[in-house]
């Protein structure tokens, strides 16, 4: 099934579909604030963002989005418990130094967490690594090993195991390959995974 796009990204379309109108939203690693701007205009959310890159922060502010410049891992502790309805971390989890700590903080400050991450278990990544004997390079992972922002390599199975170990409750799980939903064998066929989850109870 083909997935529509928001701002040229199918994962943004899935994420935006998970957030109800009027929600309090924090986007971690929000880039230039494009998603938050879209959510403000289309879902009337109360939008906040955190971004490390100063130039991107300025672009986000120019869009009318409230964005704090800083390292998301150290800035999360500044927020009170349950300050947001939804905390988003899109395509950034694999770049964090302490991903489990980040996920736990997301669930402390937000009632719900939305995480989208590239699936390093995708068959193209596996085949590229198998036959090249080098760090995988694909359209999804175009970086050389020495300049890649990715420092943790996780798969759908890895994340599922973490969810089970931590006892989190998954409300929705969706998988993408290009612009199509993946319904079977996501660890093999999905390029991107999107999870909506929360603490139980």
What's the SSE blueprint?
Layout: H1 10-18, E1 24-28, H2 34-43, E2 46-51, H3 54-62, E3 66-69, H4 72-75, E4 84-90, H5 99-109, E5 110-118, H6 123-132, H7 156-166, E6 169-177, E7 180-181, H8 186-189, E8 192-198
Parallel strand pairs: 1-2, 1-4, 2-3, 4-5
Antiparallel strand pairs: 5-8, 6-7, 6-8
Short structural description:
By secondary structure, the chain is of the alpha/beta class. It is 34% helix and 24% strand.
Protein described:
With 201 residues, the chain is of the alpha/beta class. It has a single domain (10-120, 153-198), classed as Rossmann fold (3-Layer(aba) Sandwich), CATH 3.40.50.150. The protein has helices at residues 10-18, 34-43, 54-62, 72-75, 99-109, 123-132, 156-166, 186-189, and strands at 24-28, 46-51, 66-69, 84-90, 110-118, 169-177, 180-181, 192-198. It has an eight-stranded mixed sheet, with helices on both faces. The model has no long low-confidence stretch (mean pLDDT 91).
The CATH H-level superfamily is: Vaccinia Virus protein VP39
What's the N-to-C terminus distance?
A: 33 Å
Structural class: alpha/beta
**Order of strands across the widest beta sheet?**
3-2-1-4-5-8-6-7
Keywords:
single chain; 201 residues; alpha/beta; Rossmann fold; eight-stranded mixed beta sheet; 8 helices; 8 strands; globular
